[in-house]
Amino acid sequence: MKIKVQILGDTLNIEGVKELSAANANSFRDQVRGALAERSKNIDVDLSQTLFLDSCGLGALISLHKTACTRNGTVRLLNPTPPVEQILELTRLHRVFEIVKK
Amino acid sequence: MSESPGKSSRGVALRLSLACDLTEVRPAILAVRGFLTEQGLAEKDLTKCELALAEACNNAINHAADGTKSKAIEIEVICNAAKVELRVNDHTPGFDWPQRVQLPDSESERGRGLYLIQSLMDSSVYFRGAGENSLWMCKNRPSQTGSVTLPPANLEELNRRLAESEQIINDMAEELSSCYESLSAIFRFSAEQGKSISLENFSRHLLSDLLRITAADWFVLRLVPKEQSRLVVFTASEAGLVLEPLEVPLTADLARPVEVRSALNRQDIWFDQQKALEADDPLQRAKPDSLGLVHPFYFGDTLIGALTVGKTISRVPFSAAQTNVVHTFADFLAIQIVNARFQEERVNNLLVSRDLQIAKNIQRSLLMKTVPQLPGFGLAGYCESARQVGGDFYDAVKLSDHALLLIIADVMGKGIPAAMFAAILRSLLRALPELTNQPSELLSRVNRLLFDELSEVDMFITAQLVYVDIGKRRLITASAGHCPLLLAVRGEAEVKMLSPEGMPLGILPDTPFTDETAELPRNCRVLLYTDGLTEARNARGELFGLERLLEWLKETTTRPRKAEELKDELAAELAKFQVNTSLKDDQTFLIMAE
């Protein structure tokens, strides 16, 4: 899968996630982890393009959340599409992630 | 992947099969989605079917044993006006479908698939067979009035879009209204804060509003008081929630109350029936079986407090929008609290500097503007306060044409109390004229008079009294733990140091003082000083020291000098010595010269 990764200060910015499912969740997680710079703390995942997210995709996000926690940072989910936000609420993961809407 | 649409007796059907490979799932699901769109399924149901089916297929593939991976997975979709049935058949060993499907811990990376299927579908059944399993899922369609025949496609499409738009508008409206509520509450309270209401009232009002906006029933706001490591209830929605303070240990420990854990881990902690509070948690005892969340707030690395918001009546968990409101309110409150504390500190600093100014004024008033003189003898006094604080003073009381009482004292302490004691001591000494020619007796009396007050505040005073009689050319001195009196005479090799026995005032109620008498030869100099002089340090950290003082005093006897000139000279010596340093202690001396 192709994602856009950008390092902004201590935040790693991920964009262009179209789908996050069983088929690509592990590779997504590994790509993001691989892109973390030494001083990266926070991970911002832009979900405004994400049309599909399943439980494996959620697993990948939680795994990144733990990675960020060990670096004293957080994972923020930016502008999730309505179906994605619904799944986050349904699984109550909006309590774990900071959901930012702009 | 292969597909074969058809007409079933139960409705329109789609069958397709896919290889046992996760990358095959998404294209298959998109095909199903396309099929269901054609059948006029509403967007929100499409999304639900899409996700439930994906979870079912992922499960089937993930549970396939190595030997069964060659076998395809079959999907069957049957759609009619009343419902959508989805079936996934696999040829794997299968798995045990749990009796009750629960959401795993929020930190878990797995185990949400079945929960999603159950939540998204109206019913689901798992049939586990020998080498073949079948998961059947059903989603009811909203009942359509009138004919069972489907309306024309264009009208149907319009209806669908209308429903979709309505959903979006509803979501936006909810979001907007909570944003508006937060903002208006914050503006209202910002305005209110300008008026001088207490922080406590302010917090209570703000949080009561929060309860209303988020449909919650109770709140507890705990703050960490300055220089403490405890979470103390600052305000709560009801008196029963004003719970005991909680100690915040240095490290996290699992068995701690939820508010402490949340504060130490710097993260929100949610609780509900599934993830209940510990039985001995103070919140569980006060509000059993609540659901809610704890939100800690920090200023930089400093823990400010923790806010807990809970529901006892409603079982509906907080939505994302409500959670955002809780966070917004808590963060806003944290800023107000930090501001209020800074403000308080500033006022305190102002009070302290005012206190110091008053102390300085008292001390200044003790020092005489003109010092009495005796025929043939000059007298001059010097007092320089460190910072604005001062417990040093000197005094000279003219007793007759030929007699004086010289006083020098150093009150240990600072600020108003030290200045007050200096003032009291000065008055007492002046109020006992019958004892002025018996300095030791005078010290005993004032010690007894001041002892209780001094020992109560753990302060003491060192003092030296000198009765000077130029008629008899002698002096009588007594000391209460003070620096020695220095007497220098022209032509004498050594400067005389008079240091009669005596404890500082305020140490023991009954302690003896002794008088020491000395002759006053021609051209002598008498110096009384406080230890701020000998303990003065230069920029290199060296002490001014007694030796240097003795040297200077001895040297002055070689030249005729008035007391006033000697005072200026010693002050200049001190200034020269202490160039580029700041004064650490008061420096006071009284010098008499013939």
Descriptive report:
The complex is a heterodimer of chains A (102) and B (594). Chain A has 102 residues and is an alpha/beta fold. Helices cover 35% and strands 25% of the residues of chain A. Chain A is built from three helices and seven strands. Chain A has helices at 25-35, 55-70, 82-90, and strands at residues 4-8, 11-15, 19-20, 42-46, 52-53, 75-78, 98-100. A five-stranded mixed beta sheet of chain A has the order 1-2-4-6-7. The longest helix of chain A has 16 residues, at 55-70. Chain A starts with a strand and ends with a strand. Chain B has 594 residues and is an alpha+beta fold. Chain B has three domains: 2-150, 2-Layer Sandwich (Heat Shock Protein 90), CATH 3.30.565.10; 185-342, Beta-Lactamase; 367-593, PPM-type phosphatase domain (Phosphatase 2c, domain 1, 4-Layer Sandwich). Helices cover 39% and strands 25% of the residues of chain B. Chain B is built from 13 helices and 22 strands. In chain B, the strands form four sheets. Chain B has a six-stranded antiparallel beta sheet, with helices on one face. In chain B, strands 9-8-7-12-11-10 form a six-stranded antiparallel beta sheet. In chain B, β11 and β12 (302-311) form a beta hairpin. In chain B, α2 runs antiparallel to α3 and α5 (199-214) runs antiparallel to α8. The longest helix of chain B is centred in the middle third of the chain and has 47 residues, at 320-366. Chain B is rod-shaped and about 135 Å long. The chains are: A alpha/beta (102), B alpha+beta (594). The A-B interface holds A 19, 21-23, 52, 54-56, 58-60, 62-63, 66, 82-83, 85-96, 99, 101 and B 22-23, 25-26, 47, 50-51, 54-55, 58, 61-62, 103, 106-113, 115-116, 119-120, 167-168, 171, 175, 268, 270, 293, 317, 319-320, 323-324.
Q: Let me know the average pLDDT of chain B.
A: 83
**Secondary structural class of chain B:** alpha+beta
H-E order of chain A: EEEHEEHEHE
The oligomeric status of these chains comes to heterodimer
Helix content of chain B: 25-40%
Q: Can you identify the CATH class of the largest domain in chain B?
A: Alpha Beta
SS field, number of helical segments of chain B = 13
Largest β-sheet summary of chain B: 6 strands, antiparallel
Q: How many extended strands of chain A?
A: 7
Strand runs of chain B, count: 22
- What's the end-to-end separation of chain B, in Å? 121 Å
Outline type of chain B:
rod-shaped
Q: What is the second-level CATH architecture of the largest domain in chain B?
A: 4-Layer Sandwich
CATH classification, class level of chain A: Alpha Beta
